[in-house]
Amino acid sequence: MGLIAIIGGTGVCDLKLLDHIHDGYMDTFYGTIHYVKGAYKGKDIVFLPRHGKTHSIPPHLINYRANILGLKRLGVTAILATTAVGSLNPDYKPNEFVLPDQFLDFTKLRHTSFFDGGENGVVHVDMTSPYCQTLRKTITDAGTLLENYDIHPTGTYVCTEGPRFETPAEIKMFEKLGGDLVGMTNVPEVCLAREAEICYATVSMITNFAAGISPTPLTHSEVLECMAQNSQRLRALIMKTIEI
Ligand code: HPA
């Protein structure tokens, strides 16, 4: 698969499992990215915490273009991302993993493309299968090699602008449109990876039922708590995926 990058979402600011770690910086046209380079079982890995080392960058202010272009410049050919999500689907429950295969884009204020005209031109990339099938299959295989990993193999990820959570009315609308999961970061990350011709997949960890489905109002700390409880399992899945 070439050089693999892990983009860690909420609750995955540090991979902890890499050897020979060093910090790196890469300048791009869109800004500078900070990443960590290390190795796992002899394979070079790049780790990029999406929200910064201390979770200080909110979803709507992440420099998605710099992140993806920076990884491309480093020679990354595959990105395995993690995302914390709420569930709209009664069959998809908190503490479970999902491998999204489709998305619905409800972001509003983000730079979603490298192709803004000018030097880069006007390009329309195909989004029939937005997530890399090969990497999704490898993650599924990794799950079967670990004990008690029930991974939902498909799901439609609804990406909202955030940083606020959704209203119950929005969640009802997303359900009607076919959404299964709701999160704030997968778009434009997945689209930019496609434009950069990098194989991209995300493991979504369900931290809560979405607003109006959950019996209580949502809090960021409940998301963090659920991620903390499951971080070992998530890390094990990522590392097994890299290994095989
Ligand atoms: N909505 C949006 N993003 C999220 C949620 C949610 O319910 N849970 C975790 N990330």
UniProtKB/TrEMBL annotation:
CDD domains cross-referenced by the UniProt entry: MTAP_SsMTAPII_like_MTIP
InterPro entries, per the entry: MTAP, Nucleoside_phosphorylase_d, Nucleoside_phosphorylase_sf
Annotated GO biological process: L-methionine salvage from methylthioadenosine; purine ribonucleoside salvage
A GO molecular function held by the record: S-methyl-5-thioadenosine phosphorylase activity
UniProt binding sites for phosphate: T10, R50, H51, T83, A84, T185
Reactions the enzyme catalyzes: a purine D-ribonucleoside + phosphate = a purine nucleobase + alpha-D-ribose 1-phosphate
Keyword Iron attributed: no
GO cellular component, one term: cytosol
Its job: Purine nucleoside phosphorylase which is highly specific for 6-oxopurine nucleosides. Cleaves guanosine or inosine to respective bases and sugar-1-phosphate molecules. Involved in purine salvage.
Additional notes on this entry: Although this enzyme belongs to the family of MTA phosphorylases based on sequence homology, it has been shown that conserved amino acid substitutions in the substrate binding pocket convert the substrate specificity of this enzyme from 6-aminopurines to 6-oxopurines.
Assigned protein family: Belongs to the PNP/MTAP phosphorylase family. MTAP subfamily.
This protein's name: Probable 6-oxopurine nucleoside phosphorylase
